[in-house]
Amino acid sequence: xxxxxxxxxxxxxxxxxxxxxxxxxxxxxxxxxxxxxxxxxxxxxxxxxxxxxxxxxxxxxxxxxxxxxxxxxxxxxxxxxxxxxxxxxxxxxxxxxxxxxxxxxxxxxxxx
Length: 112
Fold this sequence. Notes:
Layout: E1 6-7, E2 10-16, E3 24-31, E4 36-37, E5 40-41, E6 46-50, E7 55-59, E8 63-67, E9 72-75, E10 81-85, E11 91-98, E12 102-103
């Protein structure tokens, strides 16, 4: 995986990629234990649906939050955030993204 985007073992499955970046894309993302994205944002926002236990997300405003299976997280357009698995478990998400993801350079996530 790309270290400027992810830490740890991450597997991506593109389920739908629109030719128009303003339209929604759909991915299935599996995170190995302790794996997370780097800080990033989506100009049109993002929906994250948790398919497995032991998922987590972090924002500047709220900090790190553990998520239960079946949780739907709605990330507002432009909100800086990261997501992945808890330290000792794997996690899988369905991610619906609008717009081209804006990855931050050298922005490793500091976990609580």
